[in-house]
UniProtKB/TrEMBL annotation:
Its EC number is 6.1.1.20. Belongs to the class-II aminoacyl-tRNA synthetase family. Phe-tRNA synthetase alpha subunit type 1 subfamily. GO terms for molecular function: ATP binding; magnesium ion binding; phenylalanine-tRNA ligase activity; tRNA binding. Residues 110-335 form the Aminoacyl-transfer RNA synthetases class-II family profile domain. Its cofactor is Mg(2+). Pfam families: Phe_tRNA-synt_N, tRNA-synt_2d. It is found in: Cytoplasm. Its main location: cytoplasm. InterPro entries: aa-tRNA-synth_II, aa-tRNA-synth_II/BPL/LPL, Phe-tRNA-synth_IIc_asu, Phe-tRNA_ligase_II_N, Phe_tRNA_ligase_alpha1_bac, Phenylalanyl-tRNA_Synthase, tRNA-bd_arm. It catalyses: tRNA(Phe) + L-phenylalanine + ATP = L-phenylalanyl-tRNA(Phe) + AMP + diphosphate + H(+). Keywords: Aminoacyl-tRNA synthetase, ATP-binding, Cytoplasm, Ligase, Magnesium, Metal-binding, Nucleotide-binding, Protein biosynthesis. This is Phenylalanine--tRNA ligase alpha subunit. HAMAP family: Phe_tRNA_synth_alpha1.
Amino acid sequence: MDGLDALKGKYLEGIAGAADEAALEDLRLAALGKKGEISLKMRELGGMDPVLRQSTGAALNVLKDEIDAALRAKKAALGDAALDERLRSEWLDVTLPGRPRRQGTIHPVSQVMAELTAIFADMGFAVAEGPQVESDWYNFDALNIPPEHPARQEHDTFFMNRAEGDNRPPHVLRTHTSPVQIRAMTEQGAPIRVIAPGRVYRMDMDQTHTPMFHQVEGLAIDRDISMANLKWVLEEFCRAFFEVPSVELRFRASHFPFTEPSAEVDIRCSWEGGQLKIGEGVGWLEILGSGMVHPKVLAAAGVDPTEWQGFAFGMGIDRIAMLKYGIPDLRAFFESDLRWLRHYGFAALDMPDLAGGLSR
Ligand code: DAH
């Protein structure tokens, strides 16, 4: 029995001091494995006399259970310690606020679209949409620009490829937002009041022109709408958009195939000290084309020109964004330079509305 006590002391001590699971496994094999010390002693039982065999066998079983229990307890303790260590080293404070530099900003074009939509919505205009790949009929014919009309050349149009053997006129990337006038009137009829902001395309590239740019179309048709209504709407828009108490607009006689009469509109501004100020000074800046919708355009959209009349206008969104926010080069709008976006961008989730102040 002395031998067993010594074995017990040796193993329990070894288990208590084991540094990791590998050391524990070595101890288990040495004691309880097939050729382990306890197992060998069990094998010797067969040659003992029955009385001694019974007492030694019972003692061996107790010892075996003790060692087994000690091994399990130590294994669990080592596992807990490893988990504690992992939790300590992988600690993460999920309550830390996000890093502000990672927040995106709203592009000035999106900001200005939201601003002008808010202003025109306040005046009762809904938003209408049309496709950017447009048929030649919507982009030109329906707007009173027949195939040989010189205005077609002036638009520097991008044409889509035609399938071989297809002799129909090719689709185009819309050169202006005016085709949305036709689509909106065809769908909704008259009376109608809509704006149509969106992308347009022309083959042109310099400091103030890019092959893709943005326009907003305006259209108001009813029984007695006149140029006077157009003037009021545009003045009201400019005052609200440029956030100045008053603006002065100049209507210059012009020509567009889809309006009669037609006017280009300039806004009074000053360039003193290299700084642009809207609403004062001796300078004039062109911001849009407009006029009374041509009877042929109404008819093309299924609206009876003997019963209905109204105005339309088309304004360059990038242009008024440059004016309002003092951005000198149009090309930078579309270069996706993060430094530019951080400088000129607007806070996300801060939607402009008239009650809260437009640009804040
Ligand atoms: N579509 C013209 C352009 O892109 C702008 C324009 C002029 C739109 C007069 C109109 C309008 O609705 O009445 O140059």
